[in-house]
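Give me structure tokens for this 358-residue protein.
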Amino acid sequence: MIDVKLPETGNPKPPARVPYKRIATEEAFAPPEMLDIYRRICERGDCDAGFKGLMGFYMTSPSERAQHIMRCLIDMDDLRLQHMDEAGIDVAVMALTSPGVQVMDTPTAVSFARTANDFLAAAIRRHPTRFAGMLAVAPQDPAAAAREIERGVRELGIHAVVINSHTNGEYLSDPKFWDIFAAAEAMDAPIYLHPNSLPAGMYEPFAAAGLDGAIYGFAVETGLHALRIITAGVFDRFPRLQMILGHMGEALPYWAYRLDYMHGATVRSKRYESVKPLRQRPSDYLRQNFTITNSGVAWPHAIKFAQGFMGMDRVMYAMDYPYQYAPDEVNILDGMDLSLENKTKFFQTNAERVFKLR
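Here you go.
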């Protein structure tokens, strides 16, 4: 029987001293000005239900969890560093919290992506040994997003991109977005495909059962997005493009056998005009073009399966701060039955390579 080991509540043990750095690779932040924009969006009569149900809740709820999240998102100095120290996190790779600029109108999104990236770069300059980051872009204007990737890498020294899944219900599998992939491949900047609140067509059945968020809906929608990218032939067109998926790869590694079989069967059946032959199997693209993080899943059984499927070089540590801040999870993962070499890859050197931290 496999035991689901959950972290202890109360006062966790202090993190142990270890011979590797712990680099957390999916840690959220928000400039205060962005939350002001979000509030104005929520006040509109046509506000997206998924966005209002998620960020609208967190920005207005008096609950302890919501207050903790909003307080931690905007702090880029003492409180964040305190929490990192208490959990034994040496470096946080930060990304603009979902949905980032993707819920804004196009001109505002393009402008604020640049503002958010400058805000992040300033925080990195203040704490260069503790912080790293990912660039926000506005998929609403793919050409502008491509330019921002180029600026962010060349001028800000930030070597990765975050895109919060769909943008107004549209997916990056649509070739109109592929300027973004071209720029990311050219700049050798991996794209972290992060969850977003569910689009209109998916939201209600999940929300009615309280399953629209991180508990389940996020993984379903983001996994769908990643599969759309794979089956659209993106990696046949951009073979050097690298992407990152959190939350144990949004479960895709665990579905890989069936994905391969049923993709091949669907191609042969000619049931869908949109499903064309690929040069490789879906699982091959997962292993060659994706790295995954364990964000939100401090469960050694799942991590070790993913390492076996993806390879030791393609699984990284993440905490998912501040949405999941459980310092004792670090102790659980320090105790995994892995060699020191492989534990160092998981916590440190894979992230250093992927995000160019050295």
